[in-house]
Write a structure and sequence with these properties.
This protein is α/β, with parallel strands linked by helices and 138 residues long. The protein has one domain (2-136): Vaccinia Virus protein VP39 (Rossmann fold), CATH 3.40.50. The protein is built from five helices and five strands. Helix 5 (117-126) links the parallel strand 4 and strand 5. The protein starts with a helix and ends with a strand.
């Protein structure tokens, strides 16, 4: 399995482009007007960083969390995330303080969960008042 994860991390961005997946652009388009440069954004299931790269380019400080060390490694190589955390998204608590992020995004990961209750509970806890979450299912 680790070899399969490594392979997937290497080709993930190329496959997303080849299949015409526009989830990250859609999420950015929906959320951009609510953001300001310098704010913090957490990408739940950041993977290789596709879902949050546009937010970084817009001046947000990106933090990401993912269960896959291989995907985090691919994201780390891109050099834009301020912090990357290895964590199982179904396990509470997340490793962030209460009201510690301005916004949250998640693209292409929730279809893997049996229940989203832990995710939404934790995102509600870590978002500051007035924060927004934008989601995109694959």
């Amino acid at each position: 399995m680790p070899e399969e994860c490594h392979e997937m991390a290497l080709i993930y961005d190329e496959e997303a482009q080849a299949t015409g997946w526009h989830g990250p652009a859609v999420v950015f388009g929906l959320a951009f007007r609510y953001t300001k440069p310098g704010q913090t954004l957490i990408d739940i299931g950041i993977g290789t960083g596709l879902g949050s790269a546009l937010f970084h380019k817009a001046g947000l400080n990106v933090t990401g969390m993912d269960i896959s060390e291989e995907m985090l490694g691919a994201c780390r190589k891109k050099g834009f995330a301020a912090r990357l955390v290895h964590h199982d998204l179904t396990v509470s608590p997340y490793l962030f303080g209460d009201a510690s992020c301005d916004h949250a995004v998640s693209t292409g990961v929730f279809q893997f969960f049996e229940s989203l209750d832990p995710v939404f509970g934790e995102v509600s806890r870590i978002l500051r008042g007035g924060g927004h979450i934008r989601l995109c299912y694959r």
